[in-house]
Amino acid sequence: MPMDEMSVWDVVVVGGGAAGIAAAASLLKRNPSLSMAIVEPSDRHYYQPAWTLVGGGCFNPAETCRSTASLIPFNAKWIRNRVTRFLPQHNLVALDNGQHLSYRSLVVAPGLELDWGAIAGLQETLGKNGVTSNYRYDLAPYTWECVQSLKKGRALFTQPAMPIKCAGAPQKAMYLSCHHWEKQGHLGDIDVQFHNTGGVLFGVSEFVPPLMEYVKRYGANLNFTSTLIAVDGPAKTATFRDTAEDGSTRERTESFDMLHVVPPQRAPAFIRDSELANEGGWVAVDEASLQHPHYTNVFSLGDACGASNAKTAAAVRKQAPVVAENLLAHLDNRPMTARYTGYGACPLTVEQGKVVLAEFGYGGKLQPSFPLNPAVARTSMWWLKRYAMPRIYFSMMLKGHEWLAKPEKL
Ligand code: FAD
Fold it and tell me: Which whole number is the average pLDDT over 122-142?
């Protein structure tokens, strides 16, 4: 294992989140003797998919957090630092302590950046005045507090422009909140509005009808091409920019009692500004092999990856074995054989106890794992989401046990 700055690691992994740890585990399972460094600044690792459940009062927040140390594979070296720059023509990454790491191959998986600052006045009021978001560990419990304390008034839920991680999460927050208010008998006294920068409720049309049934049942008002641009916490007002079909815009301000915000999202700056980025700022990859088109010893997966799949942990479960097989083939000068078909999944929590499990690949092609009509809300899928998925994540995906994730052939 290389210890000094000038040594060369077989693999350097950037990011120790879902994607970095899953890829590292899948690589080391195939070749335990690889020398591998995982660069990850945080000593905490989060299972983010459960934050929706935390916001709906159905999951203990502490159970979504584990120490990074407990998840780093025993035969990899954790470098507790942050990558600041890529020098792919020299096979180097720069760290924020001034050091460099040299590699034979690189896995880029630092996730994405939540751009809270893009909405004027938001940062100052997050976590108070009824302004919340399930997109942060410390705020998801506040969502549940807001939901429980609201008995009448107006609740706003927002969704920014795509791509975002878990595109269904903004509306999942709304459904679980509405279900609680319905059970408490308060729903009729609450004006529920969903404001989406996009023009549709869900990007894969097969899932829109079952979701619309819940929108109607809860009496939620849908506002498309409506973008949150400013929040005044103390005054409890939110300003939206509405875009008409002819491209003209107008601003309108709504008062609220509760505001659930999903912020705009983008690739981290050190990716956007690097030679690895595509025109959108994400890591450029071949959609099938997940290999960088120019720097062939560079692979990417997870939210930072520029493939056009839905950015989800479910996608990572299928991407990690593809990256592992293709990266090892590249290191050994063998032809790459593994193909990623764009699988991603979004378990839409339409009520407490029922989920519509949307599973699809590139181009919105349905890829159901079970022989059941996927466009139906099911109790079984709630159990999968609530009880099985956290275990599959921590005990299988992050350990290199590739359940239902055998890659297709290139
Ligand atoms: P992350 O898991 O975010 O990890 C990125 C890591 O990179 C972090 O540990 C970070 O510290 C590290 N890092 C950042 N910058 C650097 C740097 N400069 N150098 C080194 N390391 C760095 N997915 C589903 O499949 N199903 C769901 O139901 C679902 N629901 C969701 C609900 C919410 C509210 C949220 C927020 C997400 C949800 N997701 C869901 C999405 C899922 O959590 C992400 O797609 C997944 O975590 C992506 O993994 P990642 O490793 O790319 O990013």
Answer: 98
Per-residue pLDDT, averaged over 313-334, amounts to 98
CB of 393 closer than 6 A to ligand 1? no
Atom of ligand 1 nearest to the CA of 55: 34
Return the CATH number of 115-265, one of 3.30.70.1560, 3.90.550.10, 3.50.50.60, 3.30.300.30.
3.50.50.60
CA of 346 to the centre of ligand 1 (A): 14
Are 8-112+267-342+385-409 and 115-265 in the same CATH fold?
yes
Q: 53-108 pLDDT, tens per residue?
A: 999 999 999 999 999 999 999 999 999 999 999 999 999 999 999 999 999 999 99
In three-state form (DSSP H/G/I as H, E/B as E, the rest C), the secondary structure along the chain is CCCCCCCEEEEEEECCCHHHHHHHHHHHHHCCCCCEEEECCCCEEECHHHHHHHHCCCCCHHHHEEEHHHCCCCCCEEECCCEEEEEHHHCEEEECCCCEEEEEEEEECCCCEECHHHCECHHHHCCCCCEECCCCCCCHHHHHHHHHHCCCEEEEEEECCCCCECCCHHHHHHHHHHHHHHHHCCHHHEEEEEEECCCCCCCCHHHHHHHHHHHHHHCCEEEECEEEEEEECCCCEEEEEEECCCCCEEEEEEECCEEECCCCEECCHHHHCCCCECCCCCECCCCCCCECCCCCCEEECCCCECCCCCECHHHHHHHHHHHHHHHHHHHCCCCCCEECCCCEEEEEEEECCEEEEEEECHHHCECCCCCCCCCCCEHHHHHHHHHHHHHHHHHHHHHCCCCCCCCEEC
Domain ranges within the chain, ordered by starting residue: 8-112+267-342+385-409, 115-265
Write down the pTM of the prediction: 0.97
Q: Whose CA is nearest to atom 41 of ligand 1?
A: 312
Does domain 8-112+267-342+385-409 bear CATH number 3.50.50.60?
Answer: yes
Phi-psi sector, 136: left (phi>0), alpha (psi -120 to 50), beta = beta
Q: Would the CB of 270 count as within 6 Å of ligand 1?
A: yes
Pocket test for ligand 1, best of 96, 103, 165, 367 (most atoms within 8 A of CB): 165
Instruction: Please report the pLDDT score of residue 3 as a whole number.
Output: 47
